[in-house]
Structures are given as C-alpha cells and as structure tokens.
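Researcher: Please translate sequence to structure tokens.
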Amino acid sequence: MTEDDAIKLLKDYIKNERMLNHSYATEAVMRALARRLGKDEEKWALAGLLHDLDVELTNADLNVHGIETARILKEKGIDPEIIDAIIMHNEKVTGMKRHTEFQHALAAGETITGLIIATTLVYPDKRLASVKTKSVVKRMKEKAFAASVSRENIMECEKIGIPLNEFVEICLDAMQGISATLGL
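Model: Translation complete:
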C-alpha cells in the first residue's frame, strides 16, 4: 500500500481532525522508532498511521476497537505483522498480552503522542518546537496531568530496549519534524 493510498484509507474512516493528527503523529513516531531499532520504517510507519482506523466506527469502545481495523486491512492485503501490532495495541480486545517488539513499540509510541501534545498545550506558545524532553518526562510523573494517558503503556519502551528519556526524545523529535502538519 502506498503512502497516498494509506492516507486516503485513513481519511475514508476518520473525519475528526484531532484523530487524524494523532495518526500522523503516531506514524512519525513509529518511523523514528523503527529507524532507532533497525526495523522496516515503512512497515512500522504504516502501522502507526492506520492503528486507529476503526476508532470512529467503534466509538472508541475498547471491547471492539481494533477488530474492524484488522478486517479492513486483511481485505486490503496488508502484512499480517502490521495487523497483529495494530490489534495488539488494544490488548483488551484480544485477551492476550503484548509480546513482540513491534507490539510494544506501537502501544508505547501511540500513547506517548498524547502526553507530548498535552505538554505542548500547557506551554505559553503551544508550539512543539518549545517542548523539551525533560518537560515531558516530568509530566509523565504527574499522574493527574493528562490522566487518561497510560503511563504503563508508555513504559513499554523499556521492553524494546529504549530508556524513557531516550524514548521521549526520539518521539518528541519525530513529532517536531511534522509540527506544521499537526498545527503545533
């Protein structure tokens, strides 16, 4: 699937601008993580871009979120490893625990985007360029800040061999690289 085809598919299913931006941010983060880990950047980026494809279809119901995405992507002939990582980013729907590097990377990578955005929005200029790694790490420790962001998922970065500070730096740099797209 080409990048253009993937973006068209994404926009066919997701209309909410915030969710589109989350998908673009996750794509950038996953590309950067793949680069750092020596993995297939295109494969990991595609998983990041399409991981929430069914979020509007399922009303973000964690009891079913991911199932429709898997069905849609199977019909499109997408690599089963991508589909597996996508469905496993929501462990609840599978009843299993994440166990592969790809699964952990997607769960941690897509989750950190929310913490980075929340941190950005408390800065006076609300610009990603102003955000520092240490600020995101500090906010990570504040349980009341962006309380819906799963710190446990973010800490899966350690399961892929990347310490938290480095993980935040990689992900923040990736998102800063697409700040114009994200409007931040």
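Researcher: Any highlights?
Model: The mean pLDDT is 96.
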